[in-house]
Design a protein that fits this description.
The complex is a heterodimer of chains A (334) and B (337). With 334 residues, chain A is α/β, with parallel strands linked by helices. Chain A is 35% helix and 21% strand. Chain B is built from twelve helices and twelve strands. In chain B, the strands form two sheets. Chain B has an eight-stranded mixed β-sheet, with helices on both faces. In chain B, strands 2-1-4-5 form a four-stranded antiparallel β-sheet. The chains are: A alpha/beta (334), B alpha/beta (337).
Chain lengths: 334, 337
């Protein structure tokens, strides 16, 4: 098994002008197998975008390490490694320069990295990249405003692919798109992954899309990973009460199921200004319906409670131990 | 089943709160008239929750703004009539409109931060709104506390004393909703009010709208491109495409048995638990047309797998498809294959 990505105890602290520093990441360890997709979900303020910026080298961690394809990212080799992992943003129009045509925007990336620098070679490379994202040559001369949302996002993906990365960090790449073009971008991502053996970190709050694309899902809460496991386990048989509440909060396009749902969250993920952040115990405790005394004093560690399925929750850990002690549930007859 | 029955039963008994009759919105430059909204008909009954879906450029936001006569220049209502509680407000002057807005109709926008004055405390802005609608000073303060409690703030006093920048996006959006409902409108128009919010906050706001609506019989028009939110909240859905309503149906009908190929394609393109992991999703080919540059015939025909000759010649009107569904399509769903 080749690891595309491994982070170890990543911490990112931003100094604040007033008040205590902001602890965006508080010891995040994630792993991604080569050619697979890691989905990252959580509310705003959970640290998922900070993680994305650290992974592609836009910012440096306060502490902790990042390894790409087995090699640690160190400042001296930063530029070379940056080429192996690229970031695609949520809003394609704001990530493309409105004054540059598609071929100039892609050509610029090629020049900066000293690839296919000029002439016919450059032109054919641009055409090849556009073909990869299913755009014809005629789009080369277009400005971003002449493109639909889906086309613009495909250009942004082509530009990210220009340096032949082995991994892409996709930060909400379909959220700003109309429903009718989301499927086309999702299909494209699957096809590119198969053709180019790409590894993806897919960050989104759209659980249906994450379920569709991700092999493994990490759930983040206030700078911590609180649950991690195969997509079907995490979204189908969640161990952490936060994951369950998050999944419950997403309305699904099925009026009959919507009529039935109940569980809700109290409070907000980002503590209101002036409110204190729990420095001890479980970060989710103030909102958790299952919290017990232990949650107040001891922070739960991310623990493997089922094979390959991790959660940071005292209550889930106790439940799992009890059900193991009872032995496996008898299989239903037939 | 019951949803359909209710809609038909109430149609006979009640007058709509809001009625759009063949409303056209666009710009006029010398002789050149450009329609963006091309004749929308919509009735909203008291206590009814209507969802409006469609992609960007389909005209849904302009339709909403036309109801409140808030269209930005050079856009204007080019034709048709708008009735609010049986009163024709199409040509009402600004002064008359002010009594309609807020008093009878309130609107909540997608981006809450731009709708509040950053220099004024929340309390000042709420009290100002209420005073403008004739409330006394003490009553306005009392009502401010009350509505901030209603939108789920545990500590309304602290929120009232805050400036907008001191609150999170979800809190500001709830303040906007508090402001909208403070004058007890009979109609709440909301344009993607939860799109920028976390799902957990969105859930609180949807629950709030539900409970308010049940208590006060306020009618709701909710614009969203999130079909999950639509399924969760509304009784009836209008699907807009290229400046027109192409399908209008009770929510359950629309999701179970869409009668316009565009609605069906939209629903079919969604990933979900029943779709195989990483399988190719059904795409809608092509892109939506520019409503100002339409050719004759149905505007969806270039992307429609069921189009035939007639679709290129004549644009279909909304046709009755039974069970409360109406679709602007020449083909009955059972002839789709």
């Amino acid at each position: 098994m080749v690891l595309a990505l491994r982070t170890t105890e990543l911490v990112k602290v931003y100094p604040a002008r007033h008040g205590p520093p902001v602890r965006a990441l508080q010891g995040v360890s994630v792993e991604l197998e080569s050619g697979r997709t890691l989905g990252i979900v959580g509310e705003s303020g959970c640290g998922k975008s900070t993680l994305a910026r650290l992974l592609v080298g836009l910012e440096r961690p306060t502490s902790g390490t990042i390894e790409l394809f087995g090699e640690a990212i160190v400042p001296s080799r930063h530029r070379e490694l940056a080429r192996s992992i690229q970031l695609v943003f949520q809003d394609p129009y704001s990530s493309l320069d409105p004054r540059l045509t598609v071929d100039t925007a892609i050509g610029e990336v090629l020049s900066v990295h000293g690839l296919a620098a000029r002439g016919a070679q450059r032109e054919s490379r641009i055409a090849e990249l556009l073909a990869m994202v299913a755009l014809g040559r005629r789009f080369a001369r277009c400005y971003p405003h002449e493109l639909s949302g889906g086309q613009a996002q495909r250009v942004a993906i082509a530009r990210a692919l220009a340096v032949q990365p082995k991994a892409l960090v996709l930060d909400e790449p379909t959220s700003a798109l109309d429903v009718s073009v989301r499927a086309e971008v999702i299909n494209l991502l699957v096809r590119l992954q198969d053709e180019l053996s790409l590894s993806y970190v897919f960050i989104s709050h759209d659980l249906a899309t994450v379920r569709h694309l991700a092999d493994v899902i990490d759930v983040m809460y206030l700078g911590h990973v609180v649950e991690s496991g195969p997509y079907g386990e995490v979204l189908g048989a969640a161990l952490h009460p936060y994951t369950r509440a998050l999944a419950e909060a997403v309305p699904v396009p099925d009026p009959a199921r919507e009529a039935e749902r109940r569980v809700r969250l109290a409070g907000e993920a980002v503590p209101a200004p002036g409110a204190s952040v729990a420095t001890e115990g479980c970060p989710y405790r103030p909102r958790c319906p299952l919290a017990v005394d232990l949650c107040r004093s001891v922070r739960p560690e991310l623990t493997e409670l089922r094979p390959g399925h991790f959660a940071a929750c005292h209550v889930a850990a106790r439940n799992e131990t009890e059900s193991v002690a009872r032995g496996p549930e008898p299989l239903p007859a037939g | 089943m019951t949803a359909t029955a209710t809609v038909t039963a109430t149609t006979a008994a009640q007058q709509p709160v809001l009625s759009l009759r063949d409303v056209r919105v666009g710009s006029r430059h010398r002789r050149e008239v450009r329609d963006i909204v091309r004749g929308v008909n919509l009735d909203v009954l008291p206590g009814e929750k209507v969802g409006v879906v469609g992609e960007s450029g389909s005209g849904k936001t302009l339709t909403m703004l036309s109801m409140l006569r808030l269209l930005p220049r050079p856009l204007e209502v080019l034709g048709g009539e708008i009735f609010f509680e049986n009163r024709n407000i199409t040509d009402l002057d600004e002064r008359g409109m002010q009594s309609v807005r807020g008093g009878g109709v309130a609107m909540v926008y997608q981006d809450p931060m731009t709708s509040l004055n950053p220099l004024l405390r929340v309390r000042t802005q709420l009290v100002e709104t209420l005073r403008a609608h004739g409330a006394g000073k003490a009553a306005a303060h009392e009502r401010t506390r009350e509505v901030l409690g209603q939108v789920g703030f545990v500590d309304p006093e602290r929120v009232a004393a805050a400036f907008p920048h001191e609150l999170s996006g979800g809190m500001v959006q709830r303040v906007m909703i508090a402001m909208a409902i403070s004058t007890s409108p009979r109609l709440l128009v909301a344009d993607e009010p939860t799109t920028a919010l976390d799902v957990t906050i969105q859930q609180q706001i949807l629950d709030l709208v539900d409970s308010l609506q049940a208590r006060t019989a306020m009618a709701v028009v909710w614009v969203s491109h999130d079909l999950g939110v639509i399924a969760r909240l509304v009784d009836r859905v209008c699907v807009m495409y290229a400046g027109r309503v192409v399908e209008s149906a009770p929510t359950v009908q629309l999701f179970d048995r869409p009668t316009h190929p565009y609605s069906r394609a939209l629903l079919g393109s969604l990933p979900g638990p029943e779709v195989e992991h990483r399988a190719q999703l059904t795409q809608i080919g092509g892109s939506p047309p520019d409503p100002t540059m339409l050719q004759a015939g149905c505007p969806f025909r270039a992307r429609c797998p069921y189009a035939f000759e007639r679709c290129a010649e004549e644009e279909p009107p909304l046709l009755d498809r039974g069970h409360g569904s109406f679709a602007a399509c020449w083909r009955e769903p059972d002839t789709w294959s």
